[in-house]
Amino acid sequence: MNNSMISAMVSMNGIQQRLNMIADNMANVDTVGYKRKEADFQDTLNSVMQQSPEFQQPGRATPLGLNMGYGSRMAELSVNFTQGTLKETGNMTDLAIQGNAMFQVMTQEGEIGFTRAGNFNLQPNPEDPATSYLVTSLGNPVLNTDGEFIEVPSGSKLQIDGAGNIIAVDGTVETEVGRIGLVTPLRPDSLIQKDSNLFVLPPGEIEGVIIATSDLALEEQATIRQGVLENSNVDLANEMAEMMKVQRAYQLAARALTSSDTMMNLANNLRG
């Protein structure tokens, strides 16, 4: 296989990965709290084909040696954690974070997860029908500042202030439930995306390095808004434009592969 075919094939593979990433962004344009994925590309290792000294003729300005590349590859896949637009829903269990923070939840595997998606609901406690848990749309329990499930009296109305304090109102009776636990991402690019809007710590990492506990009562870096949801930060128009550009690059790489195959076929026929 010649170098031109290798370069085209490697480039097509990287471009296909980028197309898959764009498709994922577009599919999640309406996903609450979704953060746009971005890709960085770099050239693969280059090699130099040495030339005989007789190629060094008078007047030649370039040094001996032919630089040969092998296409480009996707070097890094990152997540854009910029704030998405907010929309009011009026639902008492819908929460949005305005600022740099994330909700803490318990995943199905029993590990701590982090999300910006606040489309929560109340799920009855199987052990106590008189209470309910605040859970995500996937059924993952939302955690308070002590790392425990948020348990509220069934049938009560919830009042949640900007600091995350929860008050359950049942008629004239008000009960303090606790405070929603938040974390501040210190190195968000190090988080592992487990689901479209759910992140976890890398294996072996502990809190304090990648994320830190956020106390909204003491810090003004973030605010919780009740009855509001954060939209995806994906711009569909930009994704469509990017997809068209990447598809064009894929077509050019495929054409280069076809041309290389045609030239190799001609060379084989000449040898015959």
Automatic annotation (TrEMBL):
Keywords: Bacterial flagellum, Cell projection, Cilium, Flagellum. It is found in: Bacterial flagellum basal body. The keyword ATP-binding does not apply. Its main location: other. Residues 225-270 form the Flagellar basal-body/hook protein C-terminal domain. Pfam families: Flg_bb_rod (PF00460), Flg_bbr_C (PF06429), LlgE_F_G_D1 (PF22692). PANTHER family: FLAGELLAR BASAL-BODY ROD PROTEIN FLGG, FLAGELLAR PROTEIN. Belongs to the flagella basal body rod proteins family. This is Flagellar hook-basal body protein.
